[in-house]
Every structure is written in structure tokens, then in C-alpha cells.
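COURSE: Structural Biology Practicum
ASSIGNMENT: Worksheet 4, Part C
STUDENT ID: 0417
INSTRUCTIONS: Below are two proteins. For each, the amino acid sequence is given first, followed by its C-alpha cell string. Answer the questions at the end about the second protein only.

PROTEIN I
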Amino acid sequence: MCMLANVQQKTIQPIIEAAVAKGARIHTDEYGIYARLSAWGYRHKTVCHAHGEYARDKDGDGFCEIHVHTMEGTWSLLPSWLRLHRGTS
């Protein structure tokens, strides 16, 4: 994970291409920076945080096929787990 000083499509494209296999499905919010993911060779699904949507159950089976919280939750919990189990601050 890295912080970008200038977040644009031209700055995220090489990072995505280095880390994600072509044809993979990427879930994001509707931030415009992700608009070209399909053109770059990825399957792209979105949720709309502006409308209070954080996950979407596309087929009504109770399982949210489209969401972004798995990685957000991982990154939010990782530092506290590392601190307790690995002595990392």
C-alpha cells in the first residue's frame, strides 16, 4: 500500500497493473478515478457510497456480491493485531 501525492488515473494505472492480474474483478466505490478500469482490461463493479450503498446483493440470495469493506476492514484491523501479536507499533 502506498500514498500518492497526485491521485490520477495515470498514477494509479501502473500500480494496479503491477498488482492485479488482467481480467480480475475489482470492486470500488464510484470515484471517477476508477472509470477506466474496464478499458484497462479489468472487470469492474461499484457501490455508491453517496447513496448510502456499501454492499449490493445482486441476486437476492442474502450474499453481497459487490462490496469494498473486506479490504477496508483488513487495513483498519491489521495495525492493532500486529501490535498485540508481533510487538509492532
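PROTEIN II
(use this one for the questions)
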Amino acid sequence: MPIYEYRCESCGHQLEVMQKMSDPLLKDCPQCHEQKLTKLMSAGSFQVKSKSAAPVCPSTGAAAMPSCGGCPALE
């Protein structure tokens, strides 16, 4: 199940909620009880791994290069 982030436009409270994609969007803020929650956009938190994919440097996120020396992505 995906985790969605919401922020209240009234009081600024932020929360994360595990919901099904088919669940309705939340509206009521659990802190101030106003109907001002909006769903936030956030980056995905999964990676697709493949044996044919180039290794990625964990510190820069760029393709790992043999010249990095000691890079754990190349081990």
C-alpha cells in the first residue's frame, strides 16, 4: 500500500497516511479539525533492480565509474 503525504492549509500540520490507491482523499485535519487537507506530491521510494543495469553511486546517484576508487556500488 502506498504512503501519501498531506498538509493542512489551515494550520500547516503534515502527516503521512498508508492508503489504498482507491481510497478517497482525506479532508479533515486531525490537529485543527478543519477540512483543509491537501495531498502533497512526493518522490517515489522504490528502485527497480536489474542485473543489466549500470551500478549507481550511493553518494551522488550518478552512474558509478571505475575511477571513483573504492565505490561500494562497483564491488
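ANSWER KEY EXCERPT:
Q1: Residues 3-39 form one domain.
Q2: Residues 57 and 64 are 5 Å apart (CA to CA).
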